[in-house]
Amino acid sequence: MEYKLIGMEHCDQVLEHLRRFFFADEPLNKAAGLCQNGSSCTALEDHCVEAIKDRMSLMAVDVKVDGCCKIAGVVLNGILRPGDTAKSRQKLDGSIDADFRKIFELLHGHSLKHNLFEHFDVVRMFDVRILSVDSGYRGQGIANELVKQSLAVAKDNGFRVMKADATGIFSQKIFRSHGFEVFSEEPYDKYTDKNGKVILPVEAPHIKMQQLYKRICGEDEDVKKQPH
């Protein structure tokens, strides 16, 4: 298995992988009925492409399949700066995809309530956004290696803090095994409308989302300038 940075030239392959192995099965997407296995979701794919543009994402590639390269797993990482989440939350108002809005109103709303930038006093964070492995390759440690190599990319690029909004119990376990800690969390049964109805009826064993973080060694450029 080879692990490589994802470039814009890999977008189509990566999106096809996500359509088959992530979009329909991710706990919040599944609860919202966002899309069927193999089908596309324009808003979600745009979200993925935005991460790929930052050139911090990685893919696991099996080079032994039929003499060509097959994507076995991907981790989409982006650069998050103060104000980015607020801008993304505002953009949701213009989205015509009601199911997509339900999901990201939860994610963005939670991040805005629990501000990691202020807590760690940094001007950017390495944001782990999507972790996905081909069903035929699961159980081989690929997700763990993708997170491990993401840590190396974050270090190489001088980040001091990594962040992940983990929506399922399995990704939460993987992140914690790599030293991530829980900064905040939100039970899905507390995310309700004005009538008290649960907005996203997520299936067990996934009962809550967690905002996780990991401190890493970075360069001085990542720290806010202190007044003299």
Automatic annotation (TrEMBL):
It catalyses: serotonin + acetyl-CoA = N-acetylserotonin + CoA + H(+); serotonin + (9Z)-octadecenoyl-CoA = N-(9Z-octadecenoyl)-serotonin + CoA + H(+); serotonin + (5Z,8Z,11Z,14Z)-eicosatetraenoyl-CoA = N-[(5Z,8Z,11Z,14Z)-eicosatetraenoyl]-serotonin + CoA + H(+); dopamine + acetyl-CoA = N-acetyldopamine + CoA + H(+). Pathway: Aromatic compound metabolism; melatonin biosynthesis; melatonin from serotonin: step 1/2. Gene3D superfamilies: 3.40.630.30. The keyword Zinc-finger does not apply. Its EC number is 2.3.1.87. GO terms for molecular function: aralkylamine N-acetyltransferase activity. It holds the Pfam family Acetyltransf_1. Residues 131-180 form the N-acetyltransferase domain. Keywords: Acyltransferase, Transferase. Belongs to the acetyltransferase family. AANAT subfamily. PANTHER family: ARYLALKYLAMINE N-ACETYLTRANSFERASE-LIKE 7, ISOFORM A, N-ACETYLTRANSFERASE-RELATED. This is aralkylamine N-acetyltransferase. It comes from Drosophila rhopaloa.
